[in-house]
What we know:
Arc Repressor Mutant, subunit A, 229 residues, Rossmann fold
Amino acid sequence: MNLLLAEDDAILADALCEQMRASGFTVEHAPNGAVAQYLLAKQQFDVVVLDLGLPMVGGIEVLKQLRQTDASLPVLILTALDSLEDRVAGLNAGADDYLTKPFDFPELEARLRALLRRSRASKASTELGQLSMQRETRSAQVRGEMLELSPREFDLLDLLLTHQGRVITKEQINQAWSGDRAGNAVSDSGAATNAVEVYIHRLRRKLEGAQVAIRTVRGLGYLLELERA
């Protein structure tokens, strides 16, 4: 469970990082809104804990920008702002939950796990065009016919489907394959790049007739979209 904690209070952030890691989370900490935006653009997270009073870029702005590119990533606002107006603004900006300071860590953890359960349930299966995927069984079909996918092909298709309509970089693909969200496990960048291109080619062939296309965005990466008429 990869978690982004966007919190500018260093003492609180250190305590939360320690507690969350002890509870099984992998935690990245952003001390301000600009770093939060950078990490959200570069890495894949399962859930976000977001303070509203962040320096440089405020929490609401971080949330609004995130929702322009990712409508499904669970976000819990954790803030000292406890007025009705603040709650409404945070939820209307796209937050999934809102918890005010001071708080008890067991409640924060319970709320995060509830968000993760709902997120997993909503992502258990995905359909696009004539393509359908079931993540629990790691299977996919085109027009009802089962696709024969290697583990890497499935992970690549899962990543493209999860971010359909948005560009996925080769770095993100290699991170998904390695299980290292920071990409540190990729030692040979040339070989990694060639491997991505090979698997993209294989997947394109297997998706023929699915009414979807993997489009190359030169200099950026790939995106999955419905075929254009």
